[in-house]
Amino acid sequence: MALVLGPILAAILLGALVGSVVVWGRAHPASFDRFAAPALRATWRRWTVYRGRRWAQLMSDTGLTKEHRHTGDQLVPRVLRVRSSSASIDTVYVRMVRGQDVAYWQERSSVLWEALIAHRVAITRHRPGVVAIVIEWELPFTRTIPAPDIPETTEDVDLGAVEIGDNERGEPFTAPVIGGHRLVAGASGSGKGSVLWSTLRGVGPCIRDGIVRVWMVDLKGGVETEQGAPLFHRYATSMPAALELLTEFRDAMRDRQDDMRDQNIRACTPSTGTPVELLVIDEMAMLTAYGDRTSVRDALRLLAEVMTQGRASLFAVHGYLQEPSKDVVDVRELFTQRICLGVTAASHVDMVLGEGARERGALADEIPGDARHAGIGFVIDKGFRLPVRFRAAFVSDDEITELVTRCTPPPDADVIDLDTERGAA
């Protein structure tokens, strides 16, 4: 450019470009972080970290190079692309040397981790011959995420992407309420309540207007959910009442399926006539493992029927539990979306997120169990099969009260506490 335009004009244009970038970053940081910053960071890091002699030395030191069998030349894995979604996360796509596979790289991930002086490294197969290396340079969550605002109207709610918190890239972390079932696993104090209440805040107007109806089962006596009881269409805090609720939930699904069949409808659209029926089970193990054998068997049968048939008719199950083993949740494989918060055993990670998730970087068992790290967890990105870390927003008692005040269904709505009704009977 200097040869064509001359050094003075080239310097002026370059200065104007740099100045424009600086002004953009200061004047509108949100759009800058979304559009410009990732490309600038990726370019800078590719030239300073993932290129040339420094990259070759890193590969050699970590045992990821290979000597050519005929010429004796050192073959170095080649960086194809660098993505830098946030200030703390890089994804580097690398073409492996012939004779290597993803397992070979994963065996050396801890060595690479230490050589880079990074906080975390996760490696997975991107396509034949290419691995994706996720490098987390530092912890992305240094503060508590504030509770998401309650949308004003039902038109502001996207039931396919309800905001729960932030992901490690600094973007909103969203999860669907329709189209499947959600399993949330985490040790006591890991922040399961943050996921539960953030979800309910995100669909608050739909609860108020009858487009979403919440069926709540809390076999811990309702200690953690009683405050939100006015929001619930049905509410059970004992095993007999829970079985009654599950039976009614299953029967409602069958009735809607009959209506769909009569009207030749393949899939329902959320409305007051066909609301999303959301069954939330807090501490699911009390229902599926720790009750008496007959009750547990009945509960599992009802859950399996709903979870295998309820998607098209807008019947969804959200289960929250501490122990994710098959013995505790026999219907674990029926959950289509899984969230793993801090857990107490490495084996729990793969139980929740799928085989190999921990090897790919979902180190949920290493999340500290104190309040400062509550709400931090992992989900699996469906496109790349890589773990994505997120932090659920903290919802205080005052914010639950706000939700109840603003989004309780009208008094004539059919809201029933099944335990109270059984006691009166």
TrEMBL record:
InterPro entries: FtsK/SpoIIIE/SftA, FtsK_dom, P-loop_NTPase. It comes from the Bacteria. ATP binds at G186, A187, S188, G189, S190, G191, K192, G193. PROSITE patterns: FTSK. Pfam families: FtsK_SpoIIIE. Keywords: ATP-binding, Nucleotide-binding. Residues 170-350 form the FtsK domain. This is FtsK/SpoIIIE domain-containing protein. The lineage of its organism: Bacteria, Bacillati, Actinomycetota, Actinomycetes, Pseudonocardiales.
